[in-house]
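User: Show me a protein chain along with its predicted structure.
Assistant: Here is one chain, sequence first, then structure tokens.
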Amino acid sequence: MSNVYFIPAGSCAKEASVRLLQAILERENVTLADQVPIKVHFGEKGNRTYLKPEMYDGLIDFLQGQGKECRFSETSVLYGGERFCREKHLKLAAAHGFTRIPACIEDGANGEEAVDVKVGLKHFRSCAVAKGLADAEQILVCSHFKGHKLAGFGGAVKQLSMGCAAKGGKMAMHLSVKPKIFNLFCKHCGLCASRCQVKAITVTPKKAVIDHEKCIGCGACFSICRHHAVSILTWAGLKSMLFGKNSFREKLVEYAYAAHHGKKNIYLNFAMSVTRGCDCEPLPMRACIPDIGIFASTDPVAIDQACLDAAEKAGKKFSGSEQLAYAEEIGLGSRKYELIEI
């Protein structure tokens, strides 16, 4: 059983988050690392219900007061838009006000910087975690609890998995396929071949080919191709994405395991402005239940279970609880928790 600390809505979020962080440090025998990346979501362009930068001011004040270095941490997304690459993503972060401390896209300019974290689980033997986060001793994982079309809900586990994965990892979770080069668009520049870690790409003046026997599906070629000649949209991939929800949710959990394993992470879930859709959706949304409050734990499974239970009590039952059962099965955390109101 894990402890989950809670402050109900109505308290100042800036002060409440600090009180919860202090509770974790004092009661859970956790020591802050010298450098603490704050894993956030900068919000998609057009979205209005992501966690605003001022929500983190208290945490930043506290960390800096303890002499710790901190930064806003994010990763690039698999699809197009304002968060596809580092340059555009950082512009969006600045436009949304994330300027008080450095903002860092932890998987490189195009999502290609990853560390292969060994897990040896059902779906993955290893997971491509963003290098900056894989190298971190500790992560302060701040999650907006809300719904999600594929995962059922988004909280600490999803922020750990999809949020901490490099672009190849996101591709592996969503599509489970290897990329293909369309020579109609290929300029045969050789950039993809030069970046391929396993030398799976052959480029000649007439065509480029990926050897799927060698390919590990890291997605680097897809990420860096300037000519949009590398595709991940195959029939097998689309079928997996549209109809493989259960395996997708298990894959999320395995990536969360990779990002959590060996670290003294701290988790804060903000169950406020709880929407049916996620912060990746480029449109304004309305809350589907009243604000609940802020939760904190060292256990990503327990904190998500506590949020699911609280949301159901407030009138909204989200799907996706089976991912927490799988998370408990593989040792990521416990669904049993004691809720301690601060």
